[in-house]
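WARN retry 2 of 3 for item q-0093 after timeout on previous attempt; input resubmitted unchanged.
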Amino acid sequence: MSVINQPTSGNYGIASLYCGDLEPDITEANLYDKFSQAGPVASIRVCRDVVTKRSLGYAYINFQHAADAERALDTMNYELIKGRPMRLMWSQRDPSLRKSGVGNVFIKNLDKSIDNKSLYDTFSVFGNILSCKVATDERNVSKGYGFVHFETQEAADQAIQKVNGMLLNDKKVYVGRFMTRKERMETLGHPATRFTNIYVKNFAEAQFTEEEFQSLFDAFGKIVSCVIMKDDSGKSKGFGFVSFETHESAKQAVDSLNGSEVKNCKLYVARAQKKNERQAELREKYEKLKMERLNRYQQGVNLYVKNLDDIIDDQRLHDEFSVYGNITSAKIMVDDKGNTKGFGFVCFSSPDEATKAVTEMNGRIIVSKPLFVALAQRKEERKQHLAAQHAVRTQGMPRHLMSAPYTGVIPTNYLMPVAQPRPFLPTNQVPR
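OK item q-0093 returned
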Protein backbone atom coordinates (compact mmCIF):
# COMPACT_ATOMS: atom_id res chain seq x y z
CA MET A 1 0.00 0.00 0.00
CA SER A 2 1.33 3.43 -0.85
CA VAL A 3 1.54 6.26 1.64
CA ILE A 4 2.02 9.99 1.02
CA ASN A 5 4.42 11.34 3.60
CA GLN A 6 5.16 14.92 4.60
CA PRO A 7 7.56 16.27 7.25
CA THR A 8 5.84 16.02 10.57
CA SER A 9 6.20 17.02 14.15
CA GLY A 10 2.62 16.39 15.25
CA ASN A 11 1.05 13.69 17.38
CA TYR A 12 -0.81 11.11 15.23
CA GLY A 13 -2.87 9.88 18.19
CA ILE A 14 -4.84 13.12 18.44
CA ALA A 15 -4.70 14.21 14.79
CA SER A 16 -5.84 11.07 12.91
CA LEU A 17 -9.15 10.71 11.07
CA TYR A 18 -10.93 7.65 9.75
CA CYS A 19 -12.45 8.19 6.27
CA GLY A 20 -15.04 5.61 5.16
CA ASP A 21 -17.56 4.90 2.37
CA LEU A 22 -14.97 5.55 -0.33
CA GLU A 23 -15.25 4.48 -3.96
CA PRO A 24 -12.87 1.60 -4.87
CA ASP A 25 -10.80 3.77 -7.23
CA ILE A 26 -10.03 6.50 -4.66
CA THR A 27 -6.26 6.85 -4.19
CA GLU A 28 -4.00 8.52 -1.65
CA ALA A 29 -3.42 11.35 -4.14
CA ASN A 30 -7.18 12.04 -4.38
CA LEU A 31 -7.47 12.23 -0.60
CA TYR A 32 -4.36 14.40 -0.28
CA ASP A 33 -5.81 16.93 -2.72
CA LYS A 34 -9.02 16.98 -0.68
CA PHE A 35 -7.69 17.16 2.88
CA SER A 36 -4.67 19.39 2.35
CA GLN A 37 -7.20 22.23 2.13
CA ALA A 38 -7.82 21.82 5.88
CA GLY A 39 -4.15 21.93 6.87
CA PRO A 40 -0.76 20.21 6.55
CA VAL A 41 -1.21 16.45 6.05
CA ALA A 42 1.41 14.16 7.60
CA SER A 43 0.41 10.90 5.89
CA ILE A 44 -2.49 9.16 4.17
CA ARG A 45 -3.11 5.44 3.87
CA VAL A 46 -5.85 3.78 1.83
CA CYS A 47 -6.37 0.29 3.28
CA ARG A 48 -6.20 -2.45 0.67
CA ASP A 49 -6.72 -6.20 0.37
CA VAL A 50 -3.43 -8.00 0.99
CA VAL A 51 -3.83 -10.31 -2.02
CA THR A 52 -5.72 -8.31 -4.68
CA LYS A 53 -4.49 -4.85 -3.58
CA ARG A 54 -8.02 -3.51 -4.15
CA SER A 55 -9.23 -0.73 -1.87
CA LEU A 56 -11.33 -1.80 1.11
CA GLY A 57 -13.27 1.47 0.93
CA TYR A 58 -11.70 3.29 3.87
CA ALA A 59 -8.54 5.22 4.71
CA TYR A 60 -6.68 6.99 7.54
CA ILE A 61 -5.62 10.65 7.28
CA ASN A 62 -2.97 11.86 9.72
CA PHE A 63 -2.64 15.63 10.14
CA GLN A 64 0.36 17.40 11.62
CA HIS A 65 -1.87 19.31 14.03
CA ALA A 66 -4.99 18.24 15.92
CA ALA A 67 -6.71 21.59 15.17
CA ASP A 68 -6.48 20.87 11.44
CA ALA A 69 -7.96 17.38 11.91
CA GLU A 70 -10.82 18.85 13.92
CA ARG A 71 -11.44 21.48 11.24
CA ALA A 72 -11.59 18.79 8.56
CA LEU A 73 -14.03 16.75 10.65
CA ASP A 74 -16.32 19.75 11.23
CA THR A 75 -16.31 21.15 7.69
CA MET A 76 -15.73 18.18 5.35
CA ASN A 77 -17.78 15.33 6.85
CA TYR A 78 -20.17 13.86 4.20
CA GLU A 79 -18.69 15.98 1.43
CA LEU A 80 -18.76 14.33 -2.00
CA ILE A 81 -15.61 12.77 -3.39
CA LYS A 82 -16.05 11.29 -6.87
CA GLY A 83 -19.80 11.59 -6.45
CA ARG A 84 -20.08 9.74 -3.13
CA PRO A 85 -20.29 11.28 0.38
CA MET A 86 -17.33 10.29 2.55
CA ARG A 87 -17.85 9.54 6.24
CA LEU A 88 -15.33 11.01 8.71
CA MET A 89 -14.72 10.24 12.37
CA TRP A 90 -11.84 10.28 14.82
CA SER A 91 -9.62 7.25 14.40
CA GLN A 92 -10.22 4.90 17.34
CA ARG A 93 -7.19 2.60 17.53
CA ASP A 94 -8.38 1.15 20.85
CA PRO A 95 -11.10 -1.43 19.99
CA SER A 96 -12.31 -1.60 23.61
CA LEU A 97 -14.08 1.74 23.19
CA ARG A 98 -16.00 0.48 20.14
CA LYS A 99 -16.84 -2.87 21.71
CA SER A 100 -17.85 -1.59 25.14
CA GLY A 101 -21.27 -0.45 23.91
CA VAL A 102 -21.05 2.77 25.95
CA GLY A 103 -22.86 5.56 24.13
CA ASN A 104 -23.87 3.31 21.23
CA VAL A 105 -27.44 3.63 19.92
CA PHE A 106 -29.39 1.45 17.46
CA ILE A 107 -32.10 2.96 15.23
CA LYS A 108 -34.51 0.96 13.04
CA ASN A 109 -37.53 1.52 10.77
CA LEU A 110 -35.71 4.34 9.00
CA ASP A 111 -37.08 5.73 5.76
CA LYS A 112 -35.00 4.75 2.71
CA SER A 113 -34.27 8.42 2.00
CA ILE A 114 -32.40 8.93 5.29
CA ASP A 115 -28.64 8.73 4.70
CA ASN A 116 -25.60 9.09 6.96
CA LYS A 117 -25.68 12.89 6.91
CA SER A 118 -29.42 13.08 7.68
CA LEU A 119 -28.97 10.69 10.61
CA TYR A 120 -25.98 12.70 11.86
CA ASP A 121 -27.88 15.98 11.67
CA THR A 122 -30.83 14.47 13.56
CA PHE A 123 -28.79 13.14 16.49
CA SER A 124 -25.94 15.67 16.73
CA VAL A 125 -28.11 17.98 18.88
CA PHE A 126 -27.81 15.51 21.80
CA GLY A 127 -24.01 15.46 22.05
CA ASN A 128 -20.70 14.83 20.35
CA ILE A 129 -20.95 11.93 17.87
CA LEU A 130 -17.96 9.62 17.37
CA SER A 131 -19.47 7.73 14.45
CA CYS A 132 -22.76 7.55 12.58
CA LYS A 133 -23.79 5.04 9.89
CA VAL A 134 -26.88 3.84 8.03
CA ALA A 135 -26.56 0.18 6.99
CA THR A 136 -26.72 -0.31 3.22
CA ASP A 137 -26.76 -3.25 0.78
CA GLU A 138 -24.34 -3.93 -2.07
CA ARG A 139 -26.19 -1.35 -4.24
CA ASN A 140 -25.74 1.30 -1.55
CA VAL A 141 -29.49 1.28 -0.74
CA SER A 142 -30.51 1.75 2.91
CA LYS A 143 -31.52 -1.37 4.84
CA GLY A 144 -33.71 0.75 7.12
CA TYR A 145 -31.54 0.73 10.23
CA GLY A 146 -28.39 2.40 11.52
CA PHE A 147 -26.09 3.17 14.44
CA VAL A 148 -24.97 6.31 16.25
CA HIS A 149 -22.05 6.21 18.68
CA PHE A 150 -22.00 9.13 21.15
CA GLU A 151 -19.01 10.24 23.16
CA THR A 152 -20.94 9.80 26.43
CA GLN A 153 -23.66 7.49 27.65
CA GLU A 154 -25.63 10.52 28.89
CA ALA A 155 -25.96 11.83 25.33
CA ALA A 156 -27.05 8.39 24.14
CA ASP A 157 -29.70 8.11 26.89
CA GLN A 158 -31.06 11.55 26.01
CA ALA A 159 -31.29 10.61 22.31
CA ILE A 160 -33.17 7.41 23.15
CA GLN A 161 -35.59 9.29 25.41
CA LYS A 162 -36.30 12.09 22.92
CA VAL A 163 -36.32 10.31 19.54
CA ASN A 164 -37.72 6.83 20.26
CA GLY A 165 -41.24 6.65 18.84
CA MET A 166 -40.93 9.91 16.89
CA LEU A 167 -41.72 10.30 13.18
CA LEU A 168 -38.75 10.72 10.85
CA ASN A 169 -39.86 11.32 7.27
CA ASP A 170 -43.37 10.12 8.24
CA LYS A 171 -42.10 6.82 9.68
CA LYS A 172 -42.19 5.96 13.39
CA VAL A 173 -38.66 4.97 14.39
CA TYR A 174 -37.35 2.78 17.18
CA VAL A 175 -34.29 4.05 19.07
CA GLY A 176 -32.67 1.93 21.76
CA ARG A 177 -29.38 0.91 23.33
CA PHE A 178 -27.20 -1.10 20.99
CA MET A 179 -26.88 -4.74 22.05
CA THR A 180 -24.46 -7.35 20.74
CA ARG A 181 -25.84 -10.60 19.34
CA LYS A 182 -24.94 -12.38 22.58
CA GLU A 183 -26.78 -9.78 24.66
CA ARG A 184 -29.86 -10.01 22.41
CA MET A 185 -29.92 -13.78 22.79
CA GLU A 186 -29.66 -13.54 26.58
CA THR A 187 -32.27 -10.76 26.88
CA LEU A 188 -34.77 -11.64 24.17
CA GLY A 189 -34.07 -15.31 23.62
CA HIS A 190 -33.49 -17.11 20.32
CA PRO A 191 -35.75 -15.96 17.43
CA ALA A 192 -37.24 -19.47 17.36
CA THR A 193 -38.66 -18.91 20.87
CA ARG A 194 -40.32 -15.53 20.23
CA PHE A 195 -41.45 -15.39 16.59
CA THR A 196 -44.81 -13.96 15.50
CA ASN A 197 -44.39 -14.16 11.70
CA ILE A 198 -44.90 -17.45 9.89
CA TYR A 199 -44.11 -18.59 6.34
CA VAL A 200 -46.56 -20.76 4.39
CA LYS A 201 -45.85 -22.48 1.04
CA ASN A 202 -46.92 -25.33 -1.32
CA PHE A 203 -50.44 -24.07 -2.05
CA ALA A 204 -50.09 -22.95 -5.68
CA GLU A 205 -52.62 -25.53 -6.90
CA ALA A 206 -55.16 -24.59 -4.23
CA GLN A 207 -55.73 -21.13 -5.75
CA PHE A 208 -56.65 -19.50 -2.40
CA THR A 209 -58.27 -16.10 -2.25
CA GLU A 210 -56.91 -13.72 0.41
CA GLU A 211 -60.02 -14.41 2.53
CA GLU A 212 -59.70 -18.21 2.24
CA PHE A 213 -56.01 -18.03 3.11
CA GLN A 214 -56.62 -15.92 6.22
CA SER A 215 -59.52 -18.13 7.34
CA LEU A 216 -57.06 -21.00 7.76
CA PHE A 217 -55.31 -19.06 10.55
CA ASP A 218 -58.16 -17.09 12.19
CA ALA A 219 -58.74 -19.82 14.77
CA PHE A 220 -55.26 -19.47 16.30
CA GLY A 221 -55.38 -15.83 17.40
CA LYS A 222 -55.47 -12.22 16.32
CA ILE A 223 -53.81 -11.68 12.93
CA VAL A 224 -51.89 -8.46 12.33
CA SER A 225 -51.32 -9.03 8.60
CA CYS A 226 -51.82 -11.79 6.06
CA VAL A 227 -50.53 -11.80 2.47
CA ILE A 228 -50.21 -14.16 -0.51
CA MET A 229 -47.23 -13.35 -2.72
CA LYS A 230 -48.20 -12.84 -6.39
CA ASP A 231 -46.40 -12.32 -9.70
CA ASP A 232 -46.83 -9.34 -12.05
CA SER A 233 -49.97 -10.85 -13.57
CA GLY A 234 -51.60 -11.24 -10.15
CA LYS A 235 -51.22 -15.02 -10.03
CA SER A 236 -50.32 -16.65 -6.71
CA LYS A 237 -46.70 -17.77 -6.34
CA GLY A 238 -47.81 -20.50 -3.96
CA PHE A 239 -46.42 -18.98 -0.76
CA GLY A 240 -47.28 -16.26 1.71
CA PHE A 241 -46.84 -14.83 5.20
CA VAL A 242 -49.04 -14.48 8.27
CA SER A 243 -48.18 -12.19 11.19
CA PHE A 244 -49.83 -12.83 14.56
CA GLU A 245 -50.10 -10.51 17.52
CA THR A 246 -48.55 -13.04 19.93
CA HIS A 247 -45.87 -15.70 19.72
CA GLU A 248 -48.20 -18.30 21.24
CA SER A 249 -50.70 -17.89 18.38
CA ALA A 250 -47.98 -18.20 15.76
CA LYS A 251 -46.50 -21.31 17.39
CA GLN A 252 -49.89 -22.97 17.64
CA ALA A 253 -50.56 -22.30 13.94
CA VAL A 254 -47.22 -23.86 12.97
CA ASP A 255 -47.77 -26.92 15.17
CA SER A 256 -51.32 -27.47 13.89
CA LEU A 257 -51.04 -26.74 10.17
CA ASN A 258 -47.53 -27.81 9.14
CA GLY A 259 -47.91 -30.96 7.03
CA SER A 260 -51.71 -30.71 6.86
CA GLU A 261 -53.57 -31.16 3.56
CA VAL A 262 -55.85 -28.43 2.22
CA LYS A 263 -57.40 -28.72 -1.26
CA ASN A 264 -55.04 -31.61 -2.07
CA CYS A 265 -52.02 -29.46 -1.16
CA LYS A 266 -49.68 -30.48 1.67
CA LEU A 267 -48.87 -27.21 3.43
CA TYR A 268 -45.45 -26.26 4.77
CA VAL A 269 -45.86 -23.87 7.71
CA ALA A 270 -42.85 -22.63 9.69
CA ARG A 271 -41.31 -19.63 11.38
CA ALA A 272 -40.48 -16.88 8.88
CA GLN A 273 -36.72 -16.38 8.65
CA LYS A 274 -34.59 -13.53 7.36
CA LYS A 275 -32.54 -14.28 4.27
CA ASN A 276 -29.17 -14.21 6.07
CA GLU A 277 -30.47 -16.46 8.86
CA ARG A 278 -31.83 -18.98 6.34
CA GLN A 279 -28.57 -18.93 4.38
CA ALA A 280 -26.56 -19.49 7.58
CA GLU A 281 -28.80 -22.42 8.53
CA LEU A 282 -28.48 -24.02 5.07
CA ARG A 283 -24.72 -23.45 5.11
CA GLU A 284 -24.45 -25.14 8.52
CA LYS A 285 -26.57 -28.06 7.30
CA TYR A 286 -24.43 -28.43 4.17
CA GLU A 287 -21.19 -28.36 6.19
CA LYS A 288 -22.57 -31.02 8.52
CA LEU A 289 -23.47 -33.32 5.61
CA LYS A 290 -20.08 -32.66 4.04
CA MET A 291 -18.28 -33.68 7.24
CA GLU A 292 -20.42 -36.82 7.53
CA ARG A 293 -19.51 -37.85 3.97
CA LEU A 294 -15.86 -37.08 4.60
CA ASN A 295 -15.88 -39.18 7.77
CA ARG A 296 -17.41 -42.10 5.88
CA TYR A 297 -14.62 -41.97 3.30
CA GLN A 298 -11.92 -41.70 5.96
CA GLN A 299 -13.34 -44.55 8.05
CA GLY A 300 -13.56 -46.88 5.04
CA VAL A 301 -17.25 -47.74 5.44
CA ASN A 302 -18.54 -46.47 2.09
CA LEU A 303 -18.39 -48.85 -0.89
CA TYR A 304 -18.53 -48.12 -4.61
CA VAL A 305 -20.38 -50.76 -6.64
CA LYS A 306 -20.47 -50.75 -10.45
CA ASN A 307 -21.46 -52.96 -13.39
CA LEU A 308 -24.95 -53.33 -11.92
CA ASP A 309 -27.73 -54.85 -13.99
CA ASP A 310 -30.52 -52.49 -15.04
CA ILE A 311 -33.16 -54.32 -13.00
CA ILE A 312 -31.32 -53.82 -9.67
CA ASP A 313 -32.89 -51.11 -7.51
CA ASP A 314 -32.02 -49.63 -4.08
CA GLN A 315 -33.83 -52.37 -2.17
CA ARG A 316 -32.19 -55.20 -4.14
CA LEU A 317 -28.76 -53.59 -3.61
CA HIS A 318 -29.46 -53.33 0.12
CA ASP A 319 -30.60 -56.96 0.32
CA GLU A 320 -27.54 -58.33 -1.51
CA PHE A 321 -25.09 -56.60 0.87
CA SER A 322 -27.06 -56.77 4.13
CA VAL A 323 -25.70 -60.23 4.99
CA TYR A 324 -22.31 -58.65 5.73
CA GLY A 325 -23.42 -56.16 8.36
CA ASN A 326 -25.58 -53.18 9.26
CA ILE A 327 -26.18 -50.92 6.22
CA THR A 328 -26.87 -47.24 6.86
CA SER A 329 -27.62 -46.42 3.21
CA ALA A 330 -27.76 -48.12 -0.21
CA LYS A 331 -28.30 -46.01 -3.32
CA ILE A 332 -28.35 -46.66 -7.08
CA MET A 333 -27.39 -43.57 -9.09
CA VAL A 334 -29.92 -42.60 -11.77
CA ASP A 335 -30.14 -40.00 -14.56
CA ASP A 336 -32.74 -37.25 -15.05
CA LYS A 337 -35.25 -39.77 -16.46
CA GLY A 338 -34.85 -42.16 -13.55
CA ASN A 339 -32.81 -44.72 -15.52
CA THR A 340 -29.99 -46.46 -13.67
CA LYS A 341 -26.43 -45.39 -14.43
CA GLY A 342 -25.14 -48.86 -13.59
CA PHE A 343 -23.37 -47.96 -10.35
CA GLY A 344 -24.19 -47.09 -6.76
CA PHE A 345 -22.96 -46.84 -3.18
CA VAL A 346 -23.42 -48.96 -0.07
CA CYS A 347 -22.50 -47.55 3.34
CA PHE A 348 -21.87 -49.84 6.33
CA SER A 349 -21.77 -48.92 10.00
CA SER A 350 -18.23 -50.26 10.55
CA PRO A 351 -15.01 -50.67 8.48
CA ASP A 352 -14.83 -54.43 9.24
CA GLU A 353 -18.25 -55.03 7.67
CA ALA A 354 -17.30 -52.98 4.62
CA THR A 355 -14.00 -54.88 4.16
CA LYS A 356 -15.78 -58.22 4.39
CA ALA A 357 -18.35 -57.10 1.79
CA VAL A 358 -15.57 -56.05 -0.64
CA THR A 359 -13.83 -59.41 -0.24
CA GLU A 360 -16.98 -61.47 -0.74
CA MET A 361 -18.91 -59.42 -3.32
CA ASN A 362 -16.20 -58.18 -5.71
CA GLY A 363 -16.51 -60.29 -8.88
CA ARG A 364 -19.71 -62.02 -7.79
CA ILE A 365 -22.34 -62.33 -10.53
CA ILE A 366 -25.64 -60.69 -9.64
CA VAL A 367 -28.41 -61.30 -12.19
CA SER A 368 -26.10 -61.52 -15.22
CA LYS A 369 -23.09 -59.31 -14.54
CA PRO A 370 -19.99 -59.65 -12.32
CA LEU A 371 -19.88 -56.79 -9.80
CA PHE A 372 -16.93 -54.49 -9.22
CA VAL A 373 -16.84 -53.55 -5.51
CA ALA A 374 -14.24 -51.30 -3.87
CA LEU A 375 -13.90 -48.70 -1.16
CA ALA A 376 -15.38 -45.42 -2.37
CA GLN A 377 -12.88 -42.64 -3.02
CA ARG A 378 -13.29 -38.90 -3.15
CA LYS A 379 -12.86 -37.31 -6.57
CA GLU A 380 -9.44 -35.88 -5.69
CA GLU A 381 -8.16 -39.22 -4.38
CA ARG A 382 -9.46 -41.05 -7.46
CA LYS A 383 -7.66 -38.60 -9.76
CA GLN A 384 -4.39 -39.12 -7.87
CA HIS A 385 -4.83 -42.90 -8.00
CA LEU A 386 -5.47 -42.89 -11.77
CA ALA A 387 -2.51 -40.59 -12.34
CA ALA A 388 -0.26 -42.96 -10.39
CA GLN A 389 -1.54 -45.94 -12.39
CA HIS A 390 -0.88 -44.09 -15.66
CA ALA A 391 2.65 -43.24 -14.54
CA VAL A 392 3.38 -46.91 -13.78
CA ARG A 393 1.98 -48.09 -17.13
CA THR A 394 3.95 -45.54 -19.16
CA GLN A 395 7.23 -46.10 -17.33
CA GLY A 396 9.94 -47.09 -19.80
CA MET A 397 7.88 -46.22 -22.91
CA PRO A 398 9.44 -43.90 -25.56
CA ARG A 399 8.64 -40.29 -24.77
CA HIS A 400 7.02 -39.59 -28.17
CA LEU A 401 4.54 -42.44 -27.62
CA MET A 402 3.58 -41.17 -24.15
CA SER A 403 3.00 -37.56 -25.13
CA ALA A 404 1.55 -37.84 -28.63
CA PRO A 405 -2.26 -38.28 -28.59
CA TYR A 406 -3.88 -40.73 -31.02
CA THR A 407 -5.10 -38.90 -34.13
CA GLY A 408 -5.94 -41.77 -36.47
CA VAL A 409 -3.19 -40.67 -38.93
CA ILE A 410 -0.41 -43.14 -39.75
CA PRO A 411 3.02 -41.70 -38.78
CA THR A 412 5.42 -41.04 -41.67
CA ASN A 413 8.13 -43.25 -40.14
CA TYR A 414 5.80 -46.23 -39.81
CA LEU A 415 6.34 -49.09 -42.35
CA MET A 416 3.06 -50.61 -43.43
CA PRO A 417 3.37 -54.43 -43.64
CA VAL A 418 2.98 -55.56 -47.26
CA ALA A 419 1.71 -59.02 -48.18
CA GLN A 420 4.30 -61.03 -50.13
CA PRO A 421 3.15 -62.25 -53.61
CA ARG A 422 2.39 -65.98 -53.72
CA PRO A 423 3.82 -68.04 -56.65
CA PHE A 424 1.32 -69.11 -59.33
CA LEU A 425 0.53 -72.80 -59.15
CA PRO A 426 -0.90 -74.84 -62.05
CA THR A 427 -4.23 -76.48 -61.39
CA ASN A 428 -2.74 -79.90 -60.94
CA GLN A 429 -0.31 -78.50 -58.28
CA VAL A 430 -2.83 -76.77 -56.08
CA PRO A 431 -2.60 -78.34 -52.63
CA ARG A 432 -5.71 -80.19 -51.52
